[in-house]
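for the recovery benchmark. tokens below, seq after
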């Protein structure tokens, strides 16, 4: 925001119109349209090859169930299959020594467009032997265009209030929008960061897991102040 003393100096004795810039951050909580659930799956076999084959079979069956519930695989987040023999000899405290079968495990994610569908998918996972989904689904918005526009309108509305306060302080009647910019200068970035931080550190470092997703847009609005009272 332009310093008030500078605006006062620019107003001058001639009562000429002055220009001020206001940085504002708009915020909306938009309904989530995409829910992603992280799944861990494990299977065992007499050999590593059989463990991998068992894992592939189990994953295919699980994905079929999840698809029926309305959840589909997220290809780009698929994990690579890994197999490892786990011997328990080093952990034995009795005289009997046993060897655990080789196991194969994989981490992947599934997605759904509704909370109901992703919750149903999570229920299927919980009932599948060797499968788990410990974290709540991550929510997001597939297309943020509409939400960004709404947040931008909120930012401009906030900027208008600040600009009118400037106008009142300088004795001007009107604060007219001249230009709206989403430039990433230092002032805009600082305002954006402060807005996010105001909601707490969890909002900065944790993904959204609710039914709505916070959307913030920072703008710099240039106003012309005129109509001296």
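predicted aa per position
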């Amino acid at each position: 925001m332009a310093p008030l003393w500078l605006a006062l100096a620019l107003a001058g004795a001639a009562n000429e119109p002055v220009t001020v810039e206001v940085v504002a951050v708009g915020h909306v909580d938009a309904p989530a349209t995409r829910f992603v659930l992280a799944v861990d799956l494990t299977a065992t076999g007499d050999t590593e090859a059989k463990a991998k084959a068992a894992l592939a079979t189990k994953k295919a069956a699980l994905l079929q169930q999840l698809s029926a519930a309305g959840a589909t695989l997220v290809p780009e987040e698929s994990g690579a299959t890994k197999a490892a023999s786990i011997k328990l000899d080093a952990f034995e405290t009795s005289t009997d020594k046993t060897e655990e079968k080789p196991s194969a495990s994989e981490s992947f994610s599934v997605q759904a467009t509704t909370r109901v569908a992703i919750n149903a998918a999570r229920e299927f996972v919980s009932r599948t032997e060797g499968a788990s989904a410990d974290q709540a689904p991550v929510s997001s918005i597939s297309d943020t265009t509409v939400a960004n526009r709404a947040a931008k309108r909120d930012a401009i509305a906030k900027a208008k209030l600040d600009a009118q306060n400037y106008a009142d302080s300088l004795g001007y009647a009107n604060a007219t929008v001249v230009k709206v910019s989403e430039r990433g200068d230092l002032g805009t970035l600082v305002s954006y960061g402060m807005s996010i931080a105001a909601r707490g550190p969890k909002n900065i470092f944790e993904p959204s897991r609710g039914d709505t997703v916070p959307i913030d847009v920072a703008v710099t609005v240039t106003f012309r102040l005129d109509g001296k009272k």
